[in-house]
Amino acid sequence: MASSGASHRAVAARWSIGVLALVGACFDFDALTDGEGALRDEDARAPANEGGISPDVTAQGDVTAPRDVGSDTFEASGPPAPPTCATSGFACAVEAPTGWQGPFALYEGNAANAPSCGAVTQVVDARAGLATPSPAQCASCTCQNATGTSCGPVPIEGQNGACAGSGSTETIPPNTCIMRGYGTMLGDNVAAGGVRFSLPPVTGGSCAPTVAKPTPNNPALSWATTAVGCTTLVATTPGCNAGEVCSAVPAPPFFAKLCIAQDGDVAACPGAPYSQRHLYYKGASDTRDCAACGCAGPNPANCSAVVSTGTSTTCASPENVTNAPACLVRDPGSFYYMKATTTLPAVTCPATGGAATGTAVPAAPITVCCEPP
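Structure (tokenized):
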């Protein structure tokens, strides 16, 4: 069994085809066709929209760019005109007031069942009832490793004997050979038979974000109602009074009554017979995005260090070498010279930012006024 959407579209197509067949015997198709039975572009389509949607209105989900309903000049491009508007399937209708377009047939309902306008001009392609938009989906921000870091001073502590007990502390510059006497090391005459070296901290530096901001993935927008308006107005036809125009009679799934439209949120309809107001939107202003990424200060870290003691004034030939943290025992009469050769590690930073921002709201309103049912 065909779906209801396919069935409605078939109805719309039969309406268009039926109108053509109805007047084919008494209407000059050569004036409307290209000689091979196809409607000429100027008779089958409305002029292109020169204004379009404003830049902040975007097509999202089932929101699409509208056909032209922005011009005050409405040019009939519906079914071919019958010899007289008294012909079955046609009727005289009150013409649209200045600034309004139509009349046309209006469908309002589920998007899945929305009909196609076929060969006639689509006057309205809009939506209503925007559901609360899902926020943008944003990948987590990340940071590159820190740059501009350095190793801070190396903490040392003088200790008695074979690194027992505790003494005074100080720091020494990294990668520098220094001398501390056995009995006077650390400045308080501690008999420093051993020196304990600790790891120096990483100082300074900063990180840059891997990307300036995540690329947002915006879930499709969902609308409760779809509105489709298809031209019914035909070229000048005998049989109507002043202030009236000849229109094809709408058939399901369109409303039985005719409608007119004007861009914008018009507060009130122009009056009888087009007095039933509907407000739709051609699109949505979608500002959903991801916030910029940032990086906090570097995570705490220590440099590694190779420490040594010896008798060389340049620390070129150390006698004791090990990795910090460690305590090196010194001979009371030598090993006065010491050095801590440091190496920077890779340092990371916590990432900040990247949260979802913005929302989507209806935009580009269009007011439709219909004959009451």
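Residues 1-76 have pLDDT under 50 and may be disordered. Residues 8 and 115 are 6 Å apart (CA to CA).
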